[in-house]
Design goal:
mainly alpha; Multidrug-efflux Transporter Regulator, Chain: A, Domain 2; 2 domains; three-stranded antiparallel beta sheet; 5 helices; 3 strands; 65% helix; 5% strand; flat
């Protein structure tokens, strides 16, 4: 587990790679969603590519309205599936079904957002058409 260049990354590089603020990354740490993999001798948080990938999952879930608890639940399920050790077939299927539930919920939210986007585009087009019908203001 290491950064793209074979080393751990400090929080500033992680913020740049994820486009998340330092404050947001710290908030997710406090919530137990992403714990830095290590600390430097000076106490700086050190992250790996895996930590960055966790933050990207969270970043993608947030605008879809998932709660911190749901984020934690999904990350737990994917962590356990990725580890793969000690899981019997029933446990594996239960975890896969949990992940499928999040995939369905994300798909439903995407469909709702498409409707909202179409309505917003219609509204903007209506305003453009209205402005095109109005003569420009006379200059004095």
């Amino acid at each position: 587990m290491s950064g793209a260049d074979g080393k751990h990354m400090q929080i500033g590089e992680v913020a740049a790679r994820t486009e998340l603020s330092l404050r947001t990354i710290r908030h997710y740490e406090e919530a137990g969603l992403v714990i830095p993999s290590a600390r430097s001798r000076g106490g700086f948080r050190l992250y790996t590519d895996d930590d960055v990938q966790r933050l990207m999952v969270i970043r993608r879930m947030k605008p879809l309205g998932f709660s911190l608890e749901q984020m934690r639940d999904l990350l737990d399920a994917t962590d356990r599936l990725d580890a793969g050790t000690g899981l019997d077939a029933e446990e594996r299927e239960t975890l896969v079904e949990r992940v499928r539930g999040y995939e369905r919920a994300a798909g439903e939210q995407v469909a709702r957002l498409r409707v909202q986007l179409a309505r917003a585009e219609d509204f903007a087009a209506t305003l453009r058409a209205r402005l095109e019908r109005s003569p420009p203001a006379a200059r004095t």
